[in-house]
């Protein structure tokens, strides 16, 4: 399967990925090779990875899995580990894990000794089609998502769909939400194909999502304009995710579950603000609720979620900026929403 070429690196899939990794290590004189895992990828993915490589790993670093561990304290421990294990500027960090691990591993590598090389090997569908692509790295600030980080590109991203067999279905479906987003913002035919119960874990579908995101990032690597469309569903979705993470009486949502709700809500806002047809809004809602459980929001929940919008990374000059749809397959950025529409959007979601 053909690799996807970005500006400074490539995304390789299956056998091409294996060959690319071994060739890169063979021709690059790294002083140390570190591998970052969590307890899940150590148990389920590391044995598979060890069968793929033709080179030794100097040290395996382990962190605890979960969004609640994506914070600066974990980074501090990793920086200390790298230093104690004689890591230097010619070291390499290979990140073997989901979006939390590749985000944080990329950030740790980008800041240790002012920057060492890193390679992402995503093991969840979410990280394959989204988190590991595009160079965004970082950590959360408390329960607020991705408030600290840098944009820095990996040496390569390697996709092995066989790792998806190690996941429970809920984790896999979380990545499916991001794939549906790619269709909504850029490719209506892809949206139609995905929403019809196809095998979204198929390598061809994964490659298509990667290609869509890569095409956007190539045109706007530092998110000055076009790249903002990748945040459709994320303004409200991130606020929902943060709120549920910080409130123990609420069910903790996976990223894809939260942004699925966010895309329904922002689909409704698109109807009100940009003329997205009611037929399309209903199609989006029906499509997501076919695959994702509806989240129960009280009035107090909604008020608290809306308060979190002020922390969104797309905000500028005190304004909360939304990505909306003009039609399925065409997104627009930097839209301000009148406050009264938020309640209408949640009412539509709850219908």
Write a structural description.
The chain is of the alpha/beta class and 351 residues long. It folds into 2 domains: 164 residues, Rossmann fold; 180 residues, Dehydroquinate synthase-like, alpha domain (Up-down Bundle), CATH 1.20.1090.10. The protein is 48% helix and 15% strand. The protein has 14 helices and 11 strands. The strands form 4 sheets. The protein has a 4-stranded parallel sheet. Strands 1-2-9 form a 3-stranded mixed sheet. A hairpin with a 2-residue loop joins β10 and β11. α7 runs antiparallel to α8 and α7 crosses α9. The longest helix has 20 residues. The N and C termini lie far apart (43 Å).
CATH C-level class of the largest domain is: Mainly Alpha
Structural class: alpha/beta
Q: What is the CATH architecture term of the largest domain?
A: Up-down Bundle
What is the gyration radius calculated from CA atoms?
20 Å
Query: Using DSSP, what is the number of strands?
Result: 11
- For this structure, the CATH topology of the largest domain is Dehydroquinate synthase-like, alpha domain
Which stretches are low in confidence, meaning pLDDT under 50 for 5 or more residues running? none
Question: What percentage of residues falls in helices of 4 or more residues?
Answer: 40-55%
Beta-strand percentage range: 15-25%
Q: What spatial order of strands do you see in the largest sheet? A: 4-3-5-6
Number of domains: 2
The named CATH superfamily of the largest domain: Dehydroquinate synthase-like - alpha domain
Distance between the termini: 43 Å
Number of helices: 14
Characterize the main sheet.
Answer: 4 strands, parallel
Q: Return the average pLDDT rounded to an integer.
A: 94
**What general form does the structure show?**
globular
- SSE order, one letter for each helix or strand: EEHEHHEHEHEHEEEHHHHHHHEEH
């Amino acid at each position: 399967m053909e690799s996807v070429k970005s500006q400074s690196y490539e995304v390789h899939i299956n056998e091409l990925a294996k060959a690319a990794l071994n060739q890169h290590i063979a021709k690059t004189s790294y002083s140390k090779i570190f591998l970052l895992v969590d307890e899940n990828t150590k148990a389920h993915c590391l044995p598979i990875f060890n069968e793929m490589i033709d080179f030794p790993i100097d040290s395996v670093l382990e962190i605890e899995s979960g969004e609640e561990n994506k914070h600066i304290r974990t980074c501090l421990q990793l920086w200390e580990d790298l230093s104690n294990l004689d890591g230097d500027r010619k070291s390499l960090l290979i990140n073997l894990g989901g979006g939390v691990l590749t985000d944080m591993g990329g950030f740790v590598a980008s800041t240790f000794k002012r920057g060492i090389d890193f390679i992402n090997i995503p093991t969840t569908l979410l990280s394959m089609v989204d988190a590991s692509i595009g160079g965004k790295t970082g950590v959360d600030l408390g329960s607020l998502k991705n408030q600290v980080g840098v944009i820095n590109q990996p040496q390569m991203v390697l996709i092995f769909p066989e790792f998806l067999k190690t996941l429970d279905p809920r984790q896999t479906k979380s990545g499916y939400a991001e794939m549906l987003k790619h269709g909504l913002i850029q490719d209506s035919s892809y949206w139609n194909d995905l929403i019809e119960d196809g095998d979204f874990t198929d390598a061809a579908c994964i490659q298509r999502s990667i290609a869509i995101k890569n095409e956007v990032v190539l045109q706007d690597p530092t998110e000055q304009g076009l790249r903002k469309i990748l945040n459709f569903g994320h303004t409200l979705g991130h606020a929902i995710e943060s709120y549920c993470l910080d409130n123990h009486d609420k069910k903790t949502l996976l990223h894809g579950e939260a942004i699925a709700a966010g895309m329904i809500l922002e689909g409704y806002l698109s109807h009100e603000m940009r003329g997205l047809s009611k037929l399309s809004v209903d199609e989006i809602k029906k499509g997501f609720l076919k695959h994702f459980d509806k989240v129960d929001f009280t009035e107090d929940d909604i008020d608290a979620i809306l308060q979190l919008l002020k922390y969104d990374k797309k905000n500028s000059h005190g304004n909360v900026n939304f990505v909306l749809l003009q039609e399925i397959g065409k997104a627009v950025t930097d839209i301000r929403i009148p406050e009264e529409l938020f309640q209408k959007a949640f009412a539509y979601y709850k219908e």
